[in-house]
Amino acid sequence: MLAQTLTTLVAIATCAAGAALNPAAFAASDVIRKDFVILGGGASGTYAAIALKDKGKSFVVVEKGGRLGGHARTYYDPKTGKGVDFGLQIYLNDSVVTNFFDRLNTPYTAVSPTQFGSPFIHADFAKKVLMPNYSRGSLGQDYLDDLAKFNPGANDLTYLKTPVDPALTLTWPEYIEQTGLSNASAYAAFNRPAIPGRLREDLALYVFNDLNDVMIREGQRYGAIVNANRDNSQLYRNAQAELGSSVLYNSQIIDGIRANNNVRLVVNTPTGRKLIVAKQVIIAMPRILSNMQTLGLDSKEKALISQITGGQYYGGVVNNTGLMQTAAYPNRGVDTAWNVPDVPSVVTISPSPVDGFHYYWYTSLQATTRTVIESAVRDAISTLQTLTGAAKTTPNFVDYQDFTPLQLRVSADNINSGFYQKFNAMQGYKGTWYVSAFNVPGSSQLFKNTMDLLPQIIAAAGN
């Protein structure tokens, strides 16, 4: 009797879900029929949308925020109109990137040698001491040789070999000790940008992926470009203008079913609920469970996606700091292993091209409020004012962004159990394709991977 009751309840729930996803339950004007639906309007989603538009395909983008661009975040000084980029900083100078900039009529230029700060003033914000002898290190031939040994999987986790080399699932300090990596290379790796959480617990695999061949070239001055107006959001504003009503802003998926060439998603939009009927869905948002659970995941998908976590990372813009305009102020640990600061903490206070403005990054181990973060930044600025003899001004916070979840990871055990091979094999499963940051770390690689995958996605839709 109990089994029969449970079966009946499941059947009723299934019928109710099916009814909610039936076009007949919506006004005709609230049913959006497209070949493709793109979830997320960051780097990958925007690139995919423009590429599909250029190929004459029908699509709709669902973006939970009010703008395109993801981590490309810019504050505009109301007095001068100039921008302060406090998210995405640079791009690789290759044809995939420059063609995309050209396609969207966006100017670019080579990165300035002093863009990220001159001088670097290292300090322990917690202990309130300067560290004038700190060296950021530089990647030596030993690092490059090891990276080559682990490629192509280190450059792009799509190609990670199985079984995974045991060295890659060591923490970075364990890897340094086991391999005898030079201090210069070790410190350079600890100084890679925008890494959330406890750096000493990062696995070697993720260090090599973060500092892969592409990212190393981006770090070389001749290999990187930036928006010529120092406004990395311009690329995405231009995309917004071109995509027009093909993007649903401030919208989120609340229900869905997926099968090959039969994707149905219910979307909450500012103008009410819509039903999207599409052939294929392109996931261009962070593939964590909280983002994906309304898509009707099956047990295989849920088992893999639930293994993925992202770090807590925040940024903002502040003026009236009294600090040197051109200087960068990284936070260090004067007596911690590898001089890595404890978490939670301010990561850095960095210069901008707009007089009087700096931007900051902050990381923690759990969700943190803007009030707490700005208080920590205020304390750090006060400390730096004292240490450097700067004027004791009161900082003014003018912009803020939560970049969480940043740098998606899985555990060493899951890596060794073949996580990446299993997940990468799900491309196209149930009409679902993944192009967001996961296997590669930066926009430049995201553009290329999306470009390479699109022919398969289009073919799957029968186009």
Automatic annotation (TrEMBL):
It comes from the Eukaryota. The keyword Zinc-finger does not apply. SUPFAM superfamilies: FAD/NAD(P)-binding domain. Keywords: Signal. InterPro entries: FAD/NAD-bd_sf. Residues 1-18 form the signal peptide. Transmembrane segments: none annotated. This is FAD/NAD(P)-binding domain-containing protein.
